[in-house]
Here is the input.
Amino acid sequence: MVDQYGKRLFVSEQVDVVIIGAGAAGLFCAAQAGQGGRSVVVLDNGKKPGRKILMSGGGRCNFTNMYAEPAAFVSHNPHFCKSALARYTQWDFIELVSRHGIAYHEKTLGQLFCDNSAEDIVNLLLKECDDGNVSLRMRSEILSVERNEGGFLVKLAGAEIQASSLVIASGGLSMPGLGATPFGYKIAEQFGINVLPTRAGLVPFTLHKPLLEVLQALSGIATPVTVTAENGVSFKESILFTHRGLSGPAVLQLSSYWQAGEFIEINLFPELNINDFLNAERESHPNQSLKNTLAKHLPKRLVECLQSLDKVPELTLKQLSSPQQQQLIDALQQWRIQPNGTEGYRTAEVTLGGVDTKALSSKSMESSQVPGLYFIGEVVDVTGWLGGYNFQWAWSSAWACAQALVNQP
Ligand SMILES: Cc1cc2nc3c(=O)[nH]c(=O)nc-3n(C[C@H](O)[C@H](O)[C@H](O)COP(=O)(O)OP(=O)(O)OC[C@H]3O[C@@H](n4cnc5c(N)ncnc54)[C@H](O)[C@@H]3O)c2cc1C
Here is the structure.
């Protein structure tokens, strides 16, 4: 704010709630708390609210999943997410989407996408915020947060806001290009709240050079597989070979369960009984090459790569002995690869780890050590699978927090 001479005035104000982060969780919490009668200010350092929402789901936002349930979330405490997910479910959010007249469809595996554009979801959130008289302030750089008798004093350039409650909804570290910062973790640390180590999740794997040099020829090729991590967790979806390594839904999902140095196992025939298939093919085409036989079910270039990796012998079906057949089946169904690493936060959809749930109430997301301080959304150590689960966590955790804010005396 400036005076009549253009001099910048210092503004001091008091509100019930300051929310830091105008992403999925922050906007939804603001709307609910505002509609519940609280005065709410949302601060964000970016230009536009909901930047990740706009980018999500290839621009169509996979806003929830019909099968959302606690088992689809990774956390050091798998029980923590249960209460919030049960109190504000995917069906509640679907009802809200329908109430706003937003057309949507199921793509696959319960994943719900907007028919039109992810902008519909941002507009829904902004409309809900409007209905709650929420004051949304973009391009706000937060200089400091202090605790005092009245709650929290948030200092910005040329302004300070006193709030009874402070909600941290600043997200994780993935995609710094979309405004991700470690702000939430720093605030937690400032108040003595434990932050668990973070790492990139839902992220492509990179490969060691020798294997990459062979598999790079497959860049752009996808095939259905089952992939399994060393801890036994597995996903049956497709794998995509890229010029850097491995991606596709199966790999992205598995990356959240993978630790550096571990192997992953790929089953290239997740559905077919390959032994029966080879025997039947041998009966009808004994002189057919193994390569052409396998190419009936796998991309031809993949079979060629498998040959150059010595996983598929250059034989005809009738030349293939029983032990060789077993060896081939093992190679194709238990293809062990040791990723070199992941592409990291630059391309990761989410951040694993974060604010320790042990320090928060699962009912309200409030810190047990610092009353009035709440953490919601991705900044918390709760990470969903690929497929709309992360937004559902944003909605559910935001809703739980908003209820607590509204029901405060
Ligand atoms: C490319 C991409 C696609 C995705 N697609 C999907 C999908 O289809 N379905 C799904 O469920 N999940 C998807 N996700 C994950 C999902 O976007 C996140 O889990 C979700 O946005 C988390 O919501 P949030 O509100 O906690 O954080 P965010 O949405 O990240 O919002 C955090 C906000 O805080 C602001 N902020 C950060 N630091 C500061 C600071 N220092 N000061 C002020 N403000 C700050 C940021 O500008 C941002 O607006 C996708 C993620 C990415 C990166």
